[in-house]
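Hello,

Our lab assistant flagged a job as stuck in the queue for most of the afternoon. It eventually completed. Since we weren't sure the result was trustworthy after the delay, we are filing this so someone can double-check. Below is the sequence as submitted and the structure that was eventually returned. Let us know if re-running is recommended.
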Amino acid sequence: MKCLRIIFIASLFLALSLRAATPQAVSKFRATLAEAILSEDGDAQIELVKKLVNASGDPFVEQALSAWRQGSLFLHETNEVRTPILLDSQLDADGLALALRIVDGEPLKDAAAKPLKFAAADLTPVDTSSKLRRAIKTTLDLFSLGNSNPKIRRDAVIKLGQEQNPEYLPFFNSRLPGETSKEVRRALEEAIALTHIVEADPKVRIPAVLRLGQLRSITSLEFLKRLEKDSLSNPAKFGKGTLEAARTAVQQIETHISIGNLFGTAFRGVSLAAVLLVAALGLAITFGLMNIINMAHGEIMAVGAYTAFVVQGVFGEGLLFSLFGRTVSIKGWALTGGWFDVYFVAALVLSFFTAALVGLGLERGILRFLYKRPLESLLATWGVSLILQQIFRHTFGSANVQVNSPSFLSGSFVINDVLLAYNRLFIVGFAMFVVLLTWLLLTKTSLGLQIRAVMQNRAMASCIGVRSDRVNMLTFAFGSGLAGMAGACLSQIANVGPSLGQSYIIDCFMVVVLGGVGNLVGTVSAAAGVGVMDQILQPWLGAVLGKITVLGAVILFLQWRPNGLFVTRSRSLDG
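-- returned structure --
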């Protein structure tokens, strides 16, 4: 207990010391600024301004420096006493502002202790020279290096490094040893090397060029290409060593970019495959069970996406839509922060039930009369898809609607310059979760046993008491619910509009047929193949030609293996 008491007292003393030191440091910086303003020696002014680099913790100093550079800093002279002042941003009814003393930030007062107010037009600004303005700009730029937020420090270092200003080098070098953030340290190394490549001495320039190549510095690529071009056009000035070093660095960086683009594209393909997987799971089960080609499956996905839009409006500021020709207004709950972010979790659940209800109505109202008539069922569902598209246009308009990502799905993190978006990572994880639930449903529940029985032999299953009509209804509703959740996921990475489903229905059918109708493992494999292949080919061949190539590859594969990757076992005589 005694040791704890000593530690507590020491910590309290240290905290009080730091609190006491802070005003002293602030007053020191303001006093230095006041001294610089009052100095009549231009070189001395520049040196004093440079000492204010560490004054980033005092916003008043930053404000005063900005005003000085823009000619908005003034001197108040009375009885041969000159006082540097800054006018407050708040004006009174007469257009006058308080005069704040630079040395302490307090209002300037007259003999009666009454605060003085002035108009900017009535005062003479402090003189500046071009060199002084440049020094002030450098100091203001370097303020961000001391920011407590690593991202702000990193962005500031990148920006300053691209200026290739040798005056920044001492500050970069002094920050580097004590920097704790790995990203900021890398940015500092890049900024130092990027600044050195403009040096006249080849012994400094060439190692800096090679260092940028080793760092795979994407931000310096254009500078290195320019240096390579200049070295090629003027070998006498730069020498052969600079040209070779620049070529090596450019090649290293471009190779790194190509590999990063490949992995980034593959990751986007995996996220697209995840959406296709969730959408195609239900389609695979219903197609394999009922032999129904549901052309309205894409519009059921759009039902889930629009459900997410409506739930977002209810959790937010509300929304307007048209219903039977009348404008309907729904007042939102006006939630903010974490409470608003919950909307997406609710949207996933509600999109399942909304889409399941639509699928249930489609199955009960139309498809149960067309089970043995596949062509008629295809035409009927195609007609339903057109009707649903018109309902979307009539209700929500023909333009796309905006579905915002919750804060926990916004942003991304970078691994070796490959951008991994949180919303896409969530979709991949969610797809794996849905696959697991579907597998458990099919293998560990009585409904799953009945579904598999009907898929293998509908007549035999009916003979042993399986209510195939009920199984059809529940299976179609479950498959439609999965499509609705896929639509809710798509709202995070794609535009939500009336034609949303048409962009993915063909891919979903390709996944089902390629994987093997009604086969869960085959659907997972085919979704991964189609999604990744589509995203990799599109940057090289274009969107249209890329999709055509994928479709052609699937057709050729099915010519060799008509039943798909995995054949579903059947006990029927013709299986």
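-- support follow-up --
The delay was a queue issue, not a problem with the job. The result is valid. Strands lie at 73-78, 81-91, 97-101, 117-118, 319-323, 326-330, 412-415, 418-421. Residues 269-500 form one domain.
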